[in-house]
């Protein structure tokens, strides 16, 4: 009987913790409550990301579609530069890959601050695909040069713990 009660309690706690992420938690401070929210799970912890569809609609749409397909799950952070960025989303794991298509630049007025989510690209401004980065500090020289499409709203300490080669999993919390 005690074992059954323990199992019921354990399953209830696990289920309840999943429900917390199945909906946007009221303690998240979003710019707009209807913005898409994504959970990025790393080897070092969880990061909650708010996306900005009004600033970068094609980037947000593509990011969400790739997440729905499971594209990012199991990929690694291939670039980690302390005080600068962590970067991932390359299926080859070396910074040269993408989803098989590119996106037109959607540069906007959002600054590159600590926690900013933006899309990496080559020297061609219209070459972004699946590789994204999170800023570890304010990086003003990137402003207006890369498409900012979101920001960290929970787990701000996690990006600084990420190591090169750490794996990721992305899930949509709110579309």
Describe it.
Mean pLDDT is 90; it is low at 5-21. The protein has one domain: Cyclophilin (Beta Barrel). It contains two helices and eight strands, in the order H-E-E-H-E-E-E-E-E-E. An eight-stranded antiparallel β-sheet has the order 3-4-6-5-7-2-1-8, covered by helices on one side. Helix content is 19%, strand content 26%. With 175 residues, it is of the alpha+beta class. Strand 1 (37-42) and strand 2 (45-51) form a beta hairpin.
Any descriptors?
single chain; about 180 residues; alpha+beta; Cyclophilin; eight-stranded antiparallel sheet; about 20% helix; globular
Secondary structure topology:
Blueprint: H1 2-22, E1 37-42, E2 45-51, H2 57-68, E3 77-81, E4 85-88, E5 116-119, E6 132-135, E7 147-154, E8 168-174
Antiparallel strand pairs: 1-2, 1-8, 2-7, 3-4, 4-6, 5-6, 5-7
Q: What's the short story on this structure?
A:
This protein has 175 residues and is an alpha+beta fold. It is built from 2 helices and 8 strands.
CATH class wording: Mainly Beta
Low-confidence stretches are: 5-21
Q: Give the overall form.
A: globular
Amino-to-carboxy terminus distance: 42 Å
Whole-number count of domains: 1
């Amino acid at each position: 009987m005690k074992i059954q009660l323990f199992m019921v309690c354990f399953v209830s706690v696990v289920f309840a913790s999943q429900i917390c992420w199945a909906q946007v938690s009221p303690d998240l401070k979003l710019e707009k409550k209807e913005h898409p929210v994504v959970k990025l799970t790393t080897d070092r912890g969880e990061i909650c990301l708010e996306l900005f569809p009004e600033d970068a609609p094609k980037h947000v749409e593509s990011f969400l579609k790739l997440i729905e397909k499971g594209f990012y799950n199991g990929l690694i952070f291939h670039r980690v530069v302390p005080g600068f960025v962590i970067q991932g989303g390359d299926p080859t794991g070396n910074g040269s890959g993408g989803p098989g298509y590119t996106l037109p630049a959607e540069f906007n007025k959002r600054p590159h601050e600590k926690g900013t989510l933006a899309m990496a690209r080559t020297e061609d401004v219209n070459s972004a695909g699946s590789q994204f980065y999170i800023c570890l500090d304010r990086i003003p020289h990137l402003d207006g040069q890369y498409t900012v499409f979101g920001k960290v709203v929970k787990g701000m300490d996690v990006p600084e713990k990420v190591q090169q080669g750490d794996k990721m999993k992305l899930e949509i919390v709110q579309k």
